[in-house]
From TrEMBL:
It comes from the Eukaryota. It comes from Mucuna pruriens. SUPFAM superfamilies: DNA/RNA polymerases (SSF56672). Residues 70-149 form the Reverse transcriptase/retrotransposon-derived protein RNase H-like domain. This is Reverse transcriptase/retrotransposon-derived protein RNase H-like domain-containing protein.
Length: 151
């Protein structure tokens, strides 16, 4: 995720799948949001959120020349977007091949569950965490096995 949004790192904090954008003024923030949406579209990240246009359109209107003031519609869009991204909202259809992608470093682990249907991969859910103190000393092979178990 950090590599994808590297051009935005001066104005972003990225931790696993959470992205926080910040800027000094509204004009800079609008330009930053445009760059964020362009990058997310370029890498296909938008495809992982069902009906994303419904959630982002109130926010996209804020990027226009004469934007409406921030209101309840934008706040609701943010809340709905958070719900749409939650693993509970993304269900496994159950017909395709399930893929569990894992990653482990010295201190942290992460897994992504995907399903392949018609040669397309669909995001189903994810989990991540930090190894316990004793687990940090495990051999890489055992760490990877532990990640599969946690997934």
């Amino acid at each position: 995720m950090t590599r994808i949004f590297e051009p935005l790192l001066e104005h972003a904090i990225i931790y696993i799948d959470d992205i926080l954008l910040f800027s000094r003024d509204m004009e800079t923030h609008k330009a930053l949001l445009n760059k964020f949406f362009d990058t997310a579209n370029l890498y296909g990240l938008i495809d992982f959120i069902p009906h994303v246009d419904r959630y982002t359109s109130p926010l996209s209107r804020l990027l226009k020349k004469n934007p409406p003031p921030w209101g309840p519609e934008q706040t609701q869009a943010i809340q709905e977007l958070k719900i749409a991204q939650s693993p509970r909202a993304l269900k496994i259809p159950g017909e395709g091949k399930r893929i569990l992608q894992t990653d482990a470093s010295d201190f942290y682990w992460g897994v992504i569950l995907m399903e392949e249907l018609d040669n397309k991969k669909f995001y189903c859910g994810h989990a991540s965490g930090q190894f316990k103190e004793a687990e940090k000393y495990y051999h890489t092979t055992f760490k990877k096995a532990l990640v599969v178990k946690n997934g």
